[in-house]
Amino acid sequence: MMTTRAGWSRLIFAAVLCAAGLLIAPTPNAVAAAPNWSWLDARHYAGPIPAEPTLLESVRLDPALSVRGAGEAYRILYSTVNQYGQPAVSTAAVFVPHGEAPSGGWPVVAWAHGTVGLGDDCTPSALPRSARDDEYLSHWLDQGYAVVATDYVGLGPPGLMSYLNSVATAHAVIDSVVAAHQLDLPLSPKWAIVGQSQGGGAAVNSARWATEFSAGSGLDYRGVVATGTPANIETVVKMGAPDMQLPPELGPAANSYTAYILAAFREARPDIDVDSVLTPAGLEAVAKAETVCKPQLDSELAGMTPAQFFSAPLASVPGLPEALDEYMGTPVTGYDRPIFLGVGLLDRDVPPQSTLKFYDQLVAHNQNVELRIYPHEDHSGTVLASLPDSTPFLAAAFAD
Prior knowledge:
The chain is of the alpha/beta class. The protein has helices spanning 5-19, 28-32, 131-142, 166-180, 198-213, 233-237, 253-268, 280-289, 294-300, 320-328, 352-364, 381-385, 387-398; strands at 55-60, 70-81, 87-97, 106-112, 146-150, 187-196, 220-227, 339-344, 369-374. Mean pLDDT is 90; it is low at 1-31.
């Protein structure tokens, strides 16, 4: 069956709203629990912030927050760059494999998390990992990679996490790896990035700037693995309007992602008057999104639809289309290391065409990209199903 361009755009927009960031999928109970800061509470950090990526503090991660494959685990505070291009701080978890490091140190994999919420209570390094992510991260640890998992600027430390912000995300991911190498740990300068769903987008954006943003650090970036990857999402977010039509089966998750996108974008770009096209209900939902974690926000916004956020088309706000392009655009050129894209054809969160179109764009621009298709896997299932392919891909990327 052929899908019209308008129909396909609605499907892509639905995917963005429903799964734009689901990389870590914590249970409602996990998110409802009080954060465990592992003796490093940075919510009110007011100390000096170096202009260069710098390790500021480190502690042992509480064992309850570690993963099976980790021999040692730490929580770190480091300096990076926020959505305004200013020095800021972020936190991250660092997992080290069991046993002794190989000659030259453990190679490193950076793990970029997905949608948990924008508030401090949603901080991934202060909450237990989901069973799937425990298995996925433990796989890389078992393969002999250390794992560095940033929380992003604003999750834990002061400020608001800049949700789906391409450049701010890249700084947080890359700078976490620079900072982790300042720990007294045997880490190799060789490193790569892995991500899934919105985290696949975050990983790809980080890959674009990995070499540039880590220049002078001595690191050696090698490649990226991304599954269930949304791309070109800025073009569909602009479709937000009071007459937008979305499939009824989307449920409350669509409302939460709408709220998170709008809350983060308006915070990063106060010069763009997003509030002028929001209804009173939309304004209330966006305000909640600044602090309420994902499962709870799903519940609190269950009676809404995304169309009810808007009193006028979002794209009618002066300067907004260009600002969205800058805020969340994913480059299709400039990658200096190989890219792995995995897509499940049963994915109903991020339509397969989203990744396939991105792949075509990369190929058209002569980028080094490998595509693997999993006909019988859905959005989440592709994560683990891709390991037989992504594992040798990364091994080859790390080889001299």
